[in-house]
């Protein structure tokens, strides 16, 4: 039996445009210089307050970052409706999830810097909620790369970290997996480069979702 833990943004769904537009409006509201798209992509995966602090060159969260986080959260669903943007699945993701969800030797979960509400929207939009039996979000655990998201999913499912595979597109996913004692698979279609993923502990790189399947044999 293995536990497959998927990151969401940049791994299952392409949400960068939605995140960036919400971030752009938030920074504008607080009189901050408009962030570049590359700056937004670089922080996807972190919990929101830490991400906003990092985008302003700080390692630690200050009160204004907390205020900006609250504003971002209030805007997110509005921007989602404005853009009629449903965070589309990357090509091949649905087929891969459908394949592994039918196996008796695999459990599927999510570990994400999204809020629990944000993850729920994605799961319901793409009818994935029936496949994912465990999840940890920014509402539940410290931000990646802290290992808590992985270790808590392991505890809830009764799995060992050694039998757990974390699949993600960010360096934080790789670092989190290694810190928890799990295997890390980086995906090449997300927001970090393959070189960055390898440098941060990826045990393997998947260039298409169907390549993930071989790691569950």
From TrEMBL:
Keyword Membrane in record: no
N-terminal signal peptide: none
GO cellular component, one term: cytosol
Enzyme superclass (EC): hydrolase
InterPro entries documented for this protein: HAD-like_hydrolase_sf, HAD-like_sf, HAD-SF_hydro_IA, HAD_2, HAD_sf, PGP-like_dom2
One Pfam entry name: HAD_2
Record protein name field: Phosphoglycolate phosphatase
Organism lineage string: Bacteria, Pseudomonadati, Pseudomonadota, Alphaproteobacteria, Hyphomicrobiales
């Amino acid at each position: 039996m293995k536990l497959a833990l998927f990151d969401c943004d940049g791994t299952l769904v392409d949400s960068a445009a939605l995140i960036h537009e919400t971030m752009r409006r938030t920074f504008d509201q607080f009189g901050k210089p408009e962030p570049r798209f590359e700056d937004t992509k670089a922080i996807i995966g972190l919990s929101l307050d830490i991400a906003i602090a990092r985008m302003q060159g700080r390692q630690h969260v200050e009160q204004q970052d907390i205020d900006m986080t609250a504003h971002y959260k209030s805007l997110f669903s509005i921007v989602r409706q404005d853009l009629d943007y449903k965070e589309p699945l990357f090509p091949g993701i649905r087929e891969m999830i459908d394949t592994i969800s039918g196996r008796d030797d695999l459990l599927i979960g999510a570990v994400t810097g999204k809020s629990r509400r944000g993850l729920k929207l994605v799961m319901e939009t793409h009818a994935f909620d029936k496949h994912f039996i465990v999840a940890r979000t920014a509402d539940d655990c410290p931000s990646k790369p802290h290992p808590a998201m992985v270790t808590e999913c392991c505890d809830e499912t009764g799995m060992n970290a050694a039998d757990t595979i974390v699949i993600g597109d960010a360096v934080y996913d790789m670092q989190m997996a290694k810190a928890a004692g799990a295997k890390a698979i980086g995906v090449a279609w997300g927001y970090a480069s393959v070189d960055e993923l390898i440098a941060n502990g990826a045990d393997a790189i998947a260039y298409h979702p169907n390549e993930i399947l071989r790691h569950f044999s």
